[in-house]
Amino acid sequence: MVSNGQIVKIISNLYTVKVDDKFYECRARGKFRFAKETPLVGDFVEVDLNDNYIIKILERKNYLNRPQISNVDIALIVTSIKKPDISYNLLDKLILVIKEKNIEPVICITKLDLVGFFKRGKYKKILKYYENIGIKVFYNNNLALLKKYLKGKVVVLTGQTGAGKSTLLNKLDVNLNLETKPISDALGRGVHTTRHTEIHEIDNIYFADTPGFSSLDLVDINKDNIMMGFPEFNNYECDFKDCSHVDEKNCSVKNAVKLNRIMKSRYDSYVSFYKEIKK
Ligand SMILES: Nc1nc2c(ncn2[C@@H]2O[C@H](COP(=O)(O)OP(=O)(O)OP(=O)(O)O)[C@@H](O)[C@H]2O)c(=O)[nH]1
Ligand SMILES: [Mg+2]
Ligand SMILES: [Zn+2]
After folding, report:
1. Spatial distance between the Cα atoms of 7 and 54, rounded to a whole number of angstroms
2. Going by CA atoms, what residue is nearest to atom 27 of ligand 1?
3. Domains of the chain, with CATH numbers?
4. SS3 state at 1
5. What is the pTM of this model?
């Protein structure tokens, strides 16, 4: 009997497929390997429930390379202020690669409690800038607001290892009991606690917990779509029609950075990505 279902978890060669609220442990036919087609968590598939084999991957709405997942509405970029320190470069990179896949990036800030009152204000001001360029920002001390925004959506959690992705889901569902671990004090970075991607349903929101990372390569980004990550640059018109905003003279974007209209760290991210894709 062939049924339709969705892959909700993958551990090495074992795929957990949800069919009508039941879970089946399945394998994938060898032909996927020849076709270089890898089933992803989030994929809608046809499964043969006589022998629990995945026989077909249905067309994807979208997919992300890192973390590997398909058919999501929102990528929640879980970003800690400290432990590990917030990286604006990684944040900007995630925004770019997520937007390029037609997925909405949303920021959730964690560990604001680890800095004092005045520093908090400084970070909030920086995060306001992100709100002004159209990205929703939430804080993990007010999860009711976040839940309201995510209602009915498929949400993948992404971000640095140790940022608090699994902790966030445990707070939303006390029965979940996902493994979490303090970041290593010696190294000041996370320990890759979560090792596989898995979708959990919490109050009509589908959350995919994923393994974190500390750096990310720019896949599928080129000079034609790099601007998707920097919408605020489009408010400025430069002398050169095809200005790259890097080496040109009379560049309005560079001028806006000098005048503090474009945040310096955003421009620095842009230049580093521009150089990375030119290589
Ligand atoms: N002080 C503080 N600690 C937090 C907060 N959120 C999470 N933590 C702690 O941060 C550590 C790492 O959290 P995890 O949830 O394991 O991080 P993760 O993002 O899932 O990490 P990976 O699975 O490796 O990607 C844990 O010790 C949490 O208790 C927060 O808002 N404040
Ligand atoms: Mg985790
Ligand atoms: Zn320019």
Report:
1. 10
2. 182
3. 2-59 (2.40.50.140), 64-209 (3.40.50.300), 226-278 (1.10.40.50)
4. coil
5. 0.96
In order, the DSSP letters of 189-247 are B------S-EEEEETTEEEEE---BS-----S--TTTGGGG-GGGGG---SSTT--SSS
* pLDDT (tens digit per residue) in 188-209: 555 789 999 999 999 999 999 9
Task: Give the Å distance between the CA of 237 and the centre of ligand 3.
Answer: 7
Atom of ligand 1 nearest to the CA of 163: 19
- Report the distance separating Cα 99 and Cα 135, nearest Å: 11
Ligand 1 contacts (CB < 6 A) are: 110-111, 113-114, 140, 161-167, 180-183, 190, 192-194, 211-212
**pLDDT tens digits, 137-195:** 999 999 999 999 999 999 999 999 999 999 999 999 999 999 999 887 645 555 789 99
